[in-house]
Amino acid sequence: MSIKQTIFGAVAVAAMGVAGAASAADQQFVTIGTGGVTGVYYPTGGAICRLGNKGRKERGIRCSVESTGGSVYNTRTIRQGELDFGVVQSDVQAAALAGTGKFSEDGAYPELRALFSVHPEPMHLMARADAGIASVADLTGKKVNIANPGSGTRVLAETLMKYSGPSAADFSLAAELKSSEQAAALCDGKIDATIWAAGLPNGSSQEATSTCDVTLVPLAGANIDNLLGENSAYAAATIPGGMYAGND
């Protein structure tokens, strides 16, 4: 059974003026901000750096990767000049350019530039099979991880809740765990469900579904239709059946 989810593209972004090549005589060090080590951003950033470093003698550029809090963190840290590049959800990038959403107090950041699109990011709602969660509405009264502040997943969790009814105040616990912490917390019973956006497949979902009985909850219905209809940054997507253990 396929599972329909919302989706975004991850993009590599940089401050304007950073991406120029350096000469071999003037070695330049650049850093790519990514996300949690069990997500897809971290290995993606590592792969980009490995490709770039193959020609570092000719270009004079040495690339390193940094595990960070995610999209919002990466965007702000690029703006502050502490990161050269970052992997960022495309909806977060759009908000940063316009100075809306999480960046309403920061103001618009017109100097931000997208270099290329990396991969789509389906949203996962993972729940313990014994938690009685078959839809977003069933999260009421449950222990739910809404992701760490500064992550793109947190933006998505808040968007999902806005269109689906339950808010963080309706949960018995609104956890703010990083992606690297969520699988263990789910299987240990510390949380009943977690909201998670990442490329396919990803280590955090694989860890959870292979360690304990975890169900990927379908995101479908009038609430999701309204979310997609009113937010052009998102589109419908499908997580292929059988990609994760126990979810045929």
- Uncertain regions spanning at least 5 consecutive residues: 1-6
Beta fraction of the residues? 25-35%
How far the N terminus sits from the C terminus, by CA atoms, comes to: 6 Å
Give the helices and strands as they follow along the chain: EEHHEHEHEEHEHEHEHE
Number of strands: 10
Helix share, percent: 25-40%
Shape, principal axes of CA atoms: globular
Structure description:
By secondary structure, this protein is of the alpha/beta class. It has helices spanning 41-53, 56-59, 71-79, 90-98, 152-164, 179-187, 203-211, 222-230; strands at 3-15, 28-33, 61-66, 85-89, 112-128, 143-145, 173-175, 193-197, 214-216, 235-239. Strands 1, 2, 3, 4, 5, 6, 7, 8, 9 and 10 form a ten-stranded mixed β-sheet that branches. Helix 6 packs parallel to helix 7 (203-211). The protein starts with a strand and ends in a 9-residue tail after the last strand. The model is unreliable at 1-6 (pLDDT under 50).
